[in-house]
Amino acid sequence: MNGISLNRQSLMNSLSPKPETVSVSRSNKSLNDVINSLSTQSPATSMSDQSVDDLLVSQIHNEFTITKGIAISNYEYSAEELAIRTVVSHQNEGLARNENSDQLLNRLDQSAANIRNAYSNTSAILADIGQLGPNQRSFLASSEQRVERTMGSYQEAIYRHQNEDGDKNRFSLTIQTQEGDTITISFSSAQGNDEESMQTVDTFKLAYEVDGELSKEEHAALNKMLSGVGELADDFFADSKHAGYATFYEARQTGNDLNIDFLSDFDNAILSGVDLSFSTSGGGGDSFTQHNLDLSYQFDSLSQNQQLDLEFQSGLKQTDFSIDMSVFGKRDEQQLKQYLAVMEQSFEQNNELKNTAGRSESQQSMDKRFQQQASSDFSMFKSAFSTMSEQANRYSQIATLAEQEFNGGRALVTELTKQTITNDPRYTETLDKNQLGAGISGLADFSAQFNFNVDLIETVQSLDISQKTTNNANGTYQGVSQQKEISGDSKKRSGPDSVRQQHKQEYTVNAAIEGNTLVGLNQKHNKMSEQKTHQYVFDDNDKFIKVMTKLDVEQSSDESNIKLIQGLWLEQSSKEAEKTSTEVSLNGDIPTGVKRTNNYSHQQLTKLIGDLKPLIDNEETIEKLNKKHRSIDSFMNNTADKLI
């Protein structure tokens, strides 16, 4: 428990009962009486559990405000009894007011927060008056644990009551082999109340079907997959018990235990696809009780493509992502690490909590919970991306077509480009190393999207990232052009106020070799970030005054072009940056004030490195060099055009 630093006078001023609170204190003893009694006792080691319980009762009493019509008897409850009965009464108050599921959920969260505050404040008070010893700490910790367990059971009882028509669980799995065989496994179970017998009824159905004949190798590949799918199913259905009403204990965060690592066991030489669907729901169709996961992964060597689609709904939040990736790719740890880092950076920028001012403690707690759920689901996305990259590498090692994809120029151009950027002392890179990585990635080309949204608090996050590569050969030249791109978009609303953040960066590289020499390397890196806020301004009497809108935009561009011709190296580089901020005040639809600021910078550099003597007063040599320069440029432009 986190202690709160309070002085004696603040305790006396702040701990009197709230006006609307029902009197539940033991023997009508006020908190002041309890404090005075404790202050006169001997050292903390001799303080009785009863005295600590008296103080805890007063703190629980102080944390809750319950309508007088919802009565709690004057029986002298222990602190634990009082905590649970007060939570129940607080919930009954909501039912008496015909509150909806959302409001009842907020009540339950607030009750949990109040109970935690009561224990925390009790610990702080005892520490302030010198009465917090090992025995008192142990008493409070044990008591709080028992209350948490009871509240967990109570919450599950509420969940069951909301879904008394029955809980329904479904599981289906279909796996296809490269030979065309199909294996389908499904089960369903339901639990509900039989209205005639008034008893709980359980049903369970299991089906297993094979279309075709499985070889020994197919059996082995299937069993390996089923083991991983089984672990995911166990985690999903265990996690779903707490999906209906987001729980108030940090250890029970929906989605924390889910992963799709079983895809790494997918044998693409034998299997061609897997489809699975898990679902569990309570009766009544309430969105709070829905918990669904649908996943499809297909590996198609004919179309040279692998595709993953996932949709995950858990209560109010929904996550979906897709990854479309080539089946050809090489292991490139540096580029994979770079992609994962820039994904994480973009996601964290989107996922950062904004506009928490004005939101209640329970609302902020819910915001944090959904933030953690988004992080958990994003981890699935990153794991799937890494796994599919490895699948491409694994397939490329056994597929003869990979020779054409990589050894027909791309591998050599990639390696020579890497050597120039990282090892050549003549070359000074102008690009930001903390963003999309410089050079040509050997990973399989891909296009991927991640989306997360929450119905209740209007939170939306999306991320798009892609890589596209083209090869070219003409005469003595071989070349590769590649484009890497990432963009993020997030929207968050707090009451009438809102924040939208968008950012995008793009890196394009175009390289050409002649023989075993890199003769041309063009790189360009563009970045943009934009934040737009809407704030509704009210006066002291809650009368609307105006809307404040602010738009902040940052843009930058780094470009570097080099040509290496007969020992002469010409490098041209430029860097631009611009930052704009615009503030607009609106009274209705009428602008009442506009403020704009702008900062812009530009740098340009040209370097010529090599032996310049052959160029002096030698027009024939200069013309040959210019012709070679134009030839390289024409080839590289043609390669870049193939990206479009």
* Overall pLDDT level: 75
Q: Could you give the order of strands across the largest sheet?
A: 3-2-1-4-5-6-7-8-9-10-11-12-13-14-15
Helix content: 25-40%
C-alpha Rg (nearest Å): 33 Å
In total, the number of strands is 15
Beta-strand residue fraction = 25-35%
Cα end-to-end separation: 59 Å
Give the oligomeric state. Answer: single chain
**What does the overall shape look like?**
globular
Structural class by sheet pairing and helices: alpha+beta
Largest sheet: 15 strands, antiparallel
Order of helices and strands: HHHHHHEEEHEEEEHHHHEEEEEEEEH
Low-confidence stretches: 1-36, 38-45, 68-73, 162-166, 200-204, 242-256, 283-287
Please describe what this structure looks like.
The protein has 644 residues and is α+β, with helices and mostly antiparallel strands. It is built from twelve helices and 15 strands. The chain has helices at residues 8-14, 31-39, 49-63, 79-96, 101-128, 134-162, 216-239, 333-351, 361-398, 401-407, 410-423, 619-641, and strands at residues 167-177, 182-194, 199-211, 271-281, 291-300, 305-314, 317-326, 446-454, 459-474, 477-494, 497-514, 517-538, 544-565, 568-587, 590-609. The chain has a 15-stranded antiparallel β-sheet with strand order 3-2-1-4-5-6-7-8-9-10-11-12-13-14-15, with helices on both faces. Strand 11 (497-514) and strand 12 (517-538) form a beta hairpin. Helix 2 (31-39) packs antiparallel against helix 3, helix 4 (79-96) runs parallel beside helix 6 (134-162) and helix 5 packs antiparallel against helix 6. It is globular and about 110 Å long. Residues 1-36, 38-45, 68-73, 162-166, 200-204, 242-256 and 283-287 have low confidence and may be disordered.
